[in-house]
Amino acid sequence: MKLKKIPVCMIGAGRIGFKLEFDKKRVKPASHFGMWIMNKRFSLKAIADKKNVELKYKKKISKNISFFKNFEKMINEKKPKIVSISTWKDTHYKITQKCIDLGIKVIILEKPLANNLAQAKKLIKNIKKNKVKVLVNHRRRYDDDIIRLKKKIKAGLIGEILQISSFYVYGLLTTGTHLIDTLRMLFVETCGEVHQVSGFKNNKKNFKPIDDQNLDGFIKFKNGLTATLQNLDMKSYDNFDIHIFGKKGKILISGIGREILFYKVVTSPEHSGFTELSSKFIRLNKSKPRLQFQKLSNNAYDCLIKKKKPLCSAYESYKDMVIIDKLIKSSNKGSRLLKVKF
Ligand SMILES: NC(=O)c1ccc[n+]([C@@H]2O[C@H](COP(=O)([O-])OP(=O)(O)OC[C@H]3O[C@@H](n4cnc5c(N)ncnc54)[C@H](O)[C@@H]3O)[C@@H](O)[C@H]2O)c1
Question: Which residues, 6 or more positions from 251, have their beta carbon under 8 angstroms from its beta carbon?
């Protein structure tokens, strides 16, 4: 028996929406377009972009997919069950609100949830009121290797966590939000929520979007664990390294999250009676990119059909935004340690 495919539409056909699907190096699906056309459960009915992308993209895709400049018109005509939004962050609030008003119950939204905390708060209220499931694309939440790592840390692979140092590029809200979300994903269950932060201005002129800022900072979890967040320059190189120091060893997440390396505690070759971290690592995974977009589209299916929960809900993403807001406020108040309340 042929299964009836679920009609879906997408809004925003820029880099992550469409173009990255044609990057030869990337594992596929690598975009919103790819996640819909490669998943047999769905039928991509239409793409909306306010720019005239139709002529440019038409040859690359099936004739059955229509193009719209106005996304509301697209939703009204095509009546999708799920919509994905891959526009720039300054539009997330308005477009998501409109999709909710138009009756969409499952939405995949690119990070960050909104452009600022005030927008995020209003959006969360509306999402709750209308019982909408919004899956925010913080991609490590859809990464099987990072999900496995969380379980290993919880089971005590490196013992009690002592310190975390972590790095990001290209703006606190734009990319730092991924780092904050990954830290919360990995440690909230064992260390409690983030409850204090301190933000510092970074004056290195590292590359960033014009509507964002680069900050360094500390975030403190409820049990006292501290993580540093430090900004690097994407024009020099991309980076998303997370160093996790535990009593029984260290884990380094490197290669933009691709590599998960474990450093054992060894006897010092130089000082009697001392131990140190081995300079050699053991790989905890295959160091290959994972099918995060595939897991994301399957999670959307489960949310719609099986009434499951998003792996990254709007509320999780909202909490990331509360932390970002406090980091900015702290940096404007001489880096004072500020309490975080959600
Ligand atoms: N999750 C990830 O790993 C990841 C990676 C890259 C980008 N992103 C996020 O994805 C979003 C998009 O980034 P990008 O680099 O693809 O941006 P982009 O500028 O390349 O693409 C955005 C597209 O949206 C279109 N658009 C804007 N407003 C619209 C509207 N009202 N209706 C229809 N189309 C509209 C634009 O014309 C453009 O084509 C950002 O929020 C970014 O932070 C996430």
Answer: 149, 153, 157, 158, 243, 244, 260, 261, 262, 263, 284
pLDDT digits (tens, 9 = 90+) for 301-320: 999 999 999 999 999 999 99
**Total-model pTM:** 0.96
Ligand 1 pocket, 51 CB below 6 A?
A: yes
Least confident of 30-34, 55-59, 321-325: 55-59
* Nearest atom of ligand 1 to the alpha carbon of 95: 31
**Ligand 1, residues 32, 86, 258, 297: which to mutate, most atoms within 8 A of Cβ?**
86
Strand partners, 338: 197
pLDDT tens-digit readout, 38-88: 999 999 999 999 999 988 888 889 999 999 999 999 999 999 999 999 999
User: What are the tokens at 30?
Assistant: 């690598």
| Cβ 71 under 6 angstroms from ligand 1 | yes
**Cα–ligand 1 centroid distance for 194 (angstroms):** 29
Domains and CATH numbers, the chain: 6-140+292-313 (3.40.50.720), 142-287+323-332 (3.30.360.10)
Which residues have a Cβ under 8 Å from the Cβ of 26 and sit 6 or more positions away? 20, 289
Q: Closest by alpha carbon to 180, among 328, 293, 296, 310?
A: 328
Distance 255 CA to ligand 1 centre (A): 23
Q: How many CB atoms lie within 10 A of CB 338?
A: 16
**Is it the case that residue 237 has pLDDT exceeding 80?**
yes
Q: Is the CB of 16 under 6 A from ligand 1?
A: yes
